[in-house]
Structures are given as C-alpha cells and as structure tokens.
What does this fold into?
Amino acid sequence: MKYCAFLRGVNVKGANMKMVDVCQVFKDAGMEDVSSVLASGNIIFSSDKKADELKIILEKAMSEHFSYEAFLFIRSQQETESFWKNNPFKKDENLHVYTFVGSPEVENILMKEFESAAKTEHEKGEIINNIFYWQVSKGNTLDSTFGKILGKKNLKDQFTSRNINTFEKILKKIS
It folds into this structure.
C-alpha cells in the first residue's frame, strides 16, 4: 500500500535534516519506493504494514537516527487525496489554506482553539470529514492568535500542518 508520512517540526527550530537522509532512514526501516516532497518532511513510501505499526517503527527509527523526539503521522494514498479533495475554501492568491494531519479527534481540539481565538480578516476554520482546514490572509499565519497554537508544546505529538498546495504536490508524485 502507498502511504505518505507527515513529519512534525522538520527543518525548524534546530531539527534540521536532509530529505535524502530521511528517505534512507525509511529504506533502512524496510519501506519501499521511498521519495520526499519538499523539505518540510513529506515522505511517500510503500509498505504492507498498517499505519499504526508504521508510525511506531518510523518514529523510533527517526528518533534514533537524528537524535530528536520524532512525531509523524501516516496516511494512505486515499486519505492523503481526501485532504486535497475536501478543501472547503476557494483558491485566492491573497489567502493561505492549511490542513492539519494528526491524531484522531485532533480536529475538535483545533476547532475549539480556533473558536476561542481572536480572528483576523478572512480567517476561517472548518472541519470536513474529520480534517481541520484553516484559511488565513497571507502574512498573518504566525501573527494570528490561532497561528500561535501551532507551536504549543502540549500539542506537538497531536498534529502537524501543511499548506494545501503541499497536498497537490504530494498527489502528483504519489500517483
């Protein structure tokens, strides 16, 4: 089965790694057809194992190889496609759309945080098929109240975020 692993915190705040090295860790852990998309930690691969098994194997391998606490989220090709297909927001060159890949029910935690946050103009949050989508004006991502939760330490093992355009790039490569 084809999968995409979404790594959290790669190439930010000291967790710097080359994707060629990450791909090698995946290969050494028994994954096949391994490739990366962008430097933000999106690894496409094949395996006969189930996603929950893969998460344990790959987090351990990444943590040991790179000497950091690895958090990653595994989605099948079909699940990865759903992030792109279910985007509720219209394309607008002045706005970013982010999706959040994470643990079960994390979308509800994110929505609660979003609802209690002060909003900037055009900022919206929506859950579609258990996926949280966030729209924000370009330039306001890290300045918005909700944007600040992206780095909350108590949530670091719960989710990672990607710009919706990243999913388009992943889908072109995974197919």
